[in-house]
């Protein structure tokens, strides 16, 4: 059994870097990371060495920010090839594709067996609570699959004039995620990242809506707000999951920083593994 389940793991293979295209440079500066292109085997070996099992993510934001997708087929194939380490895969669906989006979502969740859909509303330029996209959530609900939404700011376009045209408003928890959670009480909704600068809003949504969860990728835990740190120890200890945003942050650093926060061992065990196992139905 690995030390942690990473519920938010991108890829370090060529298709990922090609998908991020012109946004990669700003991400390198924002996260201070050096992209290294790995083979599929090399990537999986790196995760194994870090003692991590991961849920890997496809990428498709063509209508919002352009670029090549990391296809759902590619991600599903990785999960098939390396099931011990890659314990699940998230489809990514460009919501602007209308009926085609719905068809691809259904194919990804049934034929390809992916665990749910990830949306990055800033990169995909849509409001999650826009009812035109509700059929996608309804599909996930009916299949018992989860939906994850990026929340808070993003490294995508960060530090450039105009943020490369990307708008942060799409990733604000209230009203956008809160409305979806209210309208789909049976849908498992995961907010990605600590939602800065709206950490308090995200905490409020989680406390109010029992079908909403958080994962903490893309940030060192030492930079979480005091309120968020308090909730992780307290009321939200069953609702928060470990995530990395690999390859932009290293596991070595994340584990070091998580452990330096002094969370009680049972809480850390929930964050690292137990919550993901229960919330996402992973038996690994
Ligand atoms: Zn990410």
How would you portray this structure in words?
It is a single chain. This protein is an alpha/beta fold and 284 residues long. Helices cover 42% and strands 13% of the residues. It has an eight-stranded parallel β-sheet with strand order 1-2-3-4-5-6-7-8, with helices on both faces. Helix 6 runs parallel beside helix 8 (134-143). 49% of the residues are buried.
Major beta sheet, strand line-up = 1-2-3-4-5-6-7-8
**Major sheet attributes:** 8 strands, parallel
Ligands in the model, by name, code or SMILES, are: zinc ion
Q: How many helical elements? A: 13
- Percentage of residues in helical conformation: 40-55%
In whole angstroms, how far apart are the ends? 7 Å
Number of strands: 8
Query: What oligomeric state is this?
Result: single chain
Q: Estimate what percentage of residues fall within beta strands.
A: 5-15%
